[in-house]
Design goal:
CATH architecture of the largest domain: 2-Layer Sandwich
Low-confidence stretches: 1-19, 25-56, 58-63
Number of helices: 9
Oligomer: single chain
Structural class: alpha+beta
CATH superfamily of the largest domain: ATP-grasp fold, B domain
CATH class of the largest domain: Alpha Beta
Shape: globular
CATH topology of the largest domain: D-amino Acid Aminotransferase, Chain A, domain 1
Helix content: 25-40%
Order of helices and strands: HEHEHHEHEEHEEEEEHEHHE
Distance between the termini: 37 Å
Radius of gyration: 20 Å
Strand content: 15-25%
Largest sheet: 4 strands, antiparallel
Length: about 250
């Protein structure tokens, strides 16, 4: 493939913008199974061709996007609480995990796409038998053009309130934006359209996010109450994790 760096290389300059564009198009389902032509950043640096043939599988290889269970494992190692769960590749294994967890569970298709809930790829199961049935229904199907080879079986956590949080790297000016929304569980685009739906904080490269500033951010989003100190602490921890991992996006949205 011409015009895209190898997957293990760091992207910069025009390559960063190309990756963000391709990632967005892939996430929105605008890249299908046919090859697409895109302007190549290589034309700026060389006398090579001005276009590159980009196939969906090559875009997916170039865009590093962790699956949910991988991301949760990384965050848990940094002291951030996540639900108990396990990734499995068979319905019987899903039943066994659900039995070990006890109580209701959630069975999620492990694919690198969003809006899994809308596509029926996230299912609640009241008992181990239902968890096995949910896994059997998901394994082997396609979600967003990706085959479901594994599912995540995790405990269903009672929800008191839902919040939205995103930590986004702006590769153009190397700043980091922290976005906080008082409502979670909905698409961020819809949340952004609501007046005061999302509060934003911009930090310079190397700047640390202290818990008190995180609390101020959540107050700006309209969040109050006794959970605010813990919310500020968790936000600071997630920000630190995103910086240490050199992540372009860390998003938490139930």
């Amino acid at each position: 493939m011409r015009g895209l760096p190898a997957p293990h290389h760091r992207f910069d300059g025009d390559g960063q913008r190309l990756r963000r564009e391709l990632s967005g198009r892939l996430h929105r389902g605008e890249i299908d199974q046919e090859p697409h032509r895109v302007v190549s950043p290589a034309q700026v640096l060389t006398s090579g061709p001005a276009e590159a043939i980009v196939r969906p599988e090559e875009v997916r290889a170039a865009v590093a996007r962790l699956l949910e269970h991988d991301a949760k494992e990384i965050l848990a190692a940094r002291g951030i609480p996540v639900p108990r769960g396990q990734a499995v590749s068979a319905a019987e294994a899903a039943r066994q995990v659900a039995s070990a967890l006890g109580g209701p569970v959630v069975v999620k298709a492990l694919v690198p796409v969003g809006k899994r809930g809308k596509s029926g790829a996230v299912r609640l199961a009241a008992d181990p038998e239902a968890a096995g049935e949910a896994a059997a229904a998901l394994l082997g199907r396609e979600v967003g053009g990706f085959p479901v080879e594994r599912v995540l079986v995790e405990e269903a956590v009672p929800v008191a309130q839902e919040r939205y949080l995103a930590i986004v790297l702006d590769a153009d000016d190397r700043t980091v934006r922290v976005l906080a929304g008082r409502e979670g569980g909905i698409e961020v685009e819809e949340l952004a359209r609501r007046e005061g739906g999302i509060a934003s904080l911009e930090l310079a490269p190397g700047e640390e996010l202290m818990p008190f500033r995180a609390r101020q951010l959540w107050r700006s989003a309209g969040v109050r109450g006794p959970a605010l100190p813990r919310l500020g602490q968790l936000t600071a921890m997630l920000y630190r994790a995103a910086i240490e991992l050199d992540a372009e996006l860390l998003e938490v949205n139930p």
